[in-house]
Amino acid sequence: MKRIIVGITGASAVIYGVRLLETLTRCDDYEIHLTISDSGARALWEELQLRVDLDNFRLESLIGYSSDQVIYHHQSDIGASIASGSFRTVGMIVAPCSMGTIGSIAAGISRNLIQRAADVCIKERRKLVLVPRETPLSPIHLENMLKLSQMGVVVLPAMPGFYHFPKTVDDMINFVITKTLDQFDIDTDLIQRWKEDL
């Protein structure tokens, strides 16, 4: 079974992290290692009215059902498996990814488990996909994202396309999740792809 790390931070649009988990739990060949920042838990409440207790985490509070595929790690657990390069994974997705998290990762600062796991992915040359949701972007944001991109990190802003004729907000969310999972060659049926039969 392949292992993939998912981090959810306090950037707006935490629905991306929730939809990502919902989609990955339908992929039987993936073990998902999840960590959520304090700000991520706050955003889950403020945006989706999901009360997630990081100290007594239950997956059902996040996606409405349990799954043996998901292994939760508290964001302060620096001894977690995903904090070590010797724990092999296919990589990590941070969705949504706050600009504070991007800045910390770009500077090599690990103040929580999300930042440490991302640092591990960079040093081990594993796939790291960051899904920022911020606008407008300051020169600092752009410099940090450029620095990470030059290191091989995939910066995948939450910018939905419209060629699949979205009719709902869900359609736009699914576009971003599809593009994110494409980075790991994980196919989904969430959207109709370009040039497929209409």
Q: Could you characterize the architecture of this molecule?
A:
- The chain has helices at 15-24, 38-48, 60-63, 99-107, 113-123, 139-150, 169-182, and strands at 2-8, 30-36, 70-72, 91-97, 127-132, 154-155.
- The chain has 198 residues and is an alpha/beta fold.
- The protein has one domain: Flavin prenyltransferase-like (Rossmann fold).
- Strand 1, helix 1 and strand 2 (30-36) form a beta-alpha-beta unit.
- The longest helix is centred in the last third of the chain and has 14 residues, at 169-182.
- The radius of gyration is 16 Å and the shape is globular.
- The protein starts with a strand and ends in a 16-residue tail after the last helix.
- The model has no long low-confidence stretch (mean pLDDT 96).
Share of helix, binned: 25-40%
CATH superfamily heading:
Flavin prenyltransferase-like
Low-confidence stretches: none
* CATH-derived architecture: 3-Layer(aba) Sandwich
- Structural class comes to alpha/beta
Q: Helix and strand succession?
A: EHEHHEEHHEHEH
The largest pleated sheet is described as: 6 strands, parallel
Domains, number: 1
Q: Distance N terminus to C terminus?
A: 35 Å
Strand content range: 15-25%
Strand order of the largest sheet: 3-2-1-4-5-6
CATH third-level topology? Rossmann fold
Mean pLDDT: 96
Shape: globular
The number of helical elements comes to 7
Key phrases:
single chain, 7 helices, alpha/beta, six-stranded parallel β-sheet, Rossmann fold, globular, 36% helix, 6 strands, 198 residues
